[in-house]
Amino acid sequence: MSIDQSYNQWADSYDNNLNKTRDLDQIVTKEVLGKLKFSEVLELGCGTGKNTTWLLEKASNIQALDFSRKMLDLAKAKIQSEKVHFLQADLKAFWPVPNNAFDLITSSLVLEHIDDLHIIFRQAFDKLRQGGYFFISELHPNKQYQGSQAKFETPDGKTHFLEVYTHHISEFTDTAFMHSFNLVELKEWFDEGDENGAPRLVSFVFQKK
Ligand SMILES: C[S@@+](CC[C@H](N)C(=O)[O-])C[C@H]1O[C@@H](n2cnc3c(N)ncnc32)[C@H](O)[C@@H]1O
H helices of the chain, where? Predict the structure, then answer.
C-alpha cells in the first residue's frame, strides 16, 4: 500500500490510538518553537492538525501541506480559521506555495517517509526568507536501528507497517549544510522515566543563511 493510502486508512484512529511518538512530538514542538518568533509558517505533513492548532496561537498565516486527503479532511474539520490554508500536495514534488515567503517551516514525523532529503532541503531553502527557521522533529534513528517504525492497527486487528527510510543524524546535518542552512539547535528527547534508554525523538532547528 502506498504511503498516502496508508495514512488515509490510519486517519480515523491517528488522534486516538496510544502513540508515544506523536505525544512526545507535541511536547517537543511547543518547547522548541515556543522560544522562537515567527509569523508566516509553512507546515509540512500537517496530518490531522495536531501541531497546527498550537502554531495558530503564534502565527498570523499558516500554509499546511499534506498528501493524504483523509488526514487533511480531519484537520479541516478541527480547525476553521482564515489564518490556515490546507493544501493537498506531495512533498516529493513541487510545493505549491510562494518562494521567500515564510519565516518558519515545520516538519514533524514526516521525513521518515521521504527517501531523498535533498528534495526537502532544496525547497525549504527556496520557500524561506533569509534568516528563516526550519524545524524538524523525527523518530530518532537509534529507535529505527532497533526496529521502531510508523505503524497502526487496522480495523481487523492486523498491524500495518508503513514504508519508511532511516536517516542518520549526520544525513540531516550534512544535507542542511549542503543547502546553505546553519544548525541552531539539535536535541534528543526521551520517554519520561526512560532517560537511560534510546532517545525517542531528535529535533533540529536550522536557519537559512
Ligand atoms: C506521522 S504523520 C505526522 C502528522 C503531523 N505532522 C503530526 O505530527 O501529527 C505523517 C504525515 O506526513 C504525511 N506525508 C508523508 N509523506 C508525505 C509526502 N510525500 N507528501 C505529503 N505528505 C506526506 C502523511 O500523510 C501524514 O499526514
Answer: 3-14, 20-33, 50-58, 69-78, 117-127, 141-145, 169-178
- Taking the CA atoms of the chain, what radius of gyration do you get in angstroms? 16
Domain with 163 in it = 3-208
pLDDT at 36: 97
Per-residue pLDDT of 185-194, as tens digits, reads 999 999 998 8
Ligand 1: lining residues by beta carbon, under 6 Å: 3-4, 7, 22, 25, 45-47, 50-51, 66-68, 71, 90-92, 108-110, 113-114, 150
Give the mean model confidence (pLDDT) for residues 87-102: 98
Share above pLDDT 70 across residues of the chain, in percent, rounded to a whole number: 100
Distances, alpha carbon 182 to alpha carbons 42, 58, 131, 133, in Å: 19, 24, 10, 9
Number of structural domains (the chain) is: 1
Please tell me the number of Cα atoms within 13 Å of 42 on its side-chain side: 24
